[in-house]
Amino acid sequence: MFAPQHSCLKRAAVALFCLLTASLALRAQEAKAPAPKFLRQFSSADDVTHEAHPVLNKTLDIVAGPGETHPSIDRLAGPYGVTTDRTGRVLVADPEAGALHIFDFAQAKYFALGGRSSHLKSPTNVVVDHDGNIYVSDPVVVAVVVYDARGKFLHYLGKLAGAESYFQSPAGIAIHEPTGHIYVCDSRRHMVLTLDKKGHILNHIGKRWGGKGPGEFRYPSQIAIAGDELVVLDRANSRLQILDLGGHFRREIKLPDVSADAGLALDASKNIYVSDPQFSAINVFAYDGHLLYKFGRNGSKPGEFDEPAGLWIDAGQTLYVADTKNKRVQEFQIGTRESER
Question: pTM for this structure?
């Protein structure tokens, strides 16, 4: 008569053993994943030029033209979005300063786009296409502002006649290089919009009032592209959604509570990096969703963060972190896990 009870205890013991084994395996895998190596940090034009301001202002006029640049902005105030272009320049969207900073370390040059008379008001995210054109999402302008590689304004995406726009709050942005299609998270509209380079809407993903189902969003904030798939940070649903390029749902990755300012990036191995401003850390997930490791803590030393936001990983596997409250960008070299060697 004790057999059923014995069977239950045995099943419970087996379940506990499996849980412990899985936990140990995860810790072992994490141990094999070296933390990214700190490379450098930068926060102002002086980190690039090491020149006096009159010379810097002259460089600004030559590179981008005096009408659009903002010479008085030469220091990060609240960096939020970050990316690089094919020449190695680092572009930083800074809504606190109302500017887009462009750091060209190879040429020892710096310039900024922004200011009262410019087309930018509160730039939050930035991406560069194959031709070097710069796309900046700005929720105050309620559009994506497009510049050429030299900083000359080209046009808006989203602006209609008058002050109207087909965005409500453009946020994260990504470009699919083979097609040139532009994917924009319209956060308050709970949608991801697909546009061509002329700004024509090709597709809407999600529904107007938001939702929790597959392919639905609640305040999507960031987006990245991995081959033929979209990775969307579905913020208020505390998850990542993996979709095909047409917006069809494939799977999801559940996350802890996600901050409105969390950033998103993918490396060459399709590992997913999500910043955690609340705990001043970066969480790294495998593409199947399990946590590989996390790094960082609150502070101002190299490798420490204070509310990190935007993330970007370039082709050379350099991770850029917009360390918002520390008013700087930090660079890290990403290591390779043993299982990928």
Answer: 0.85
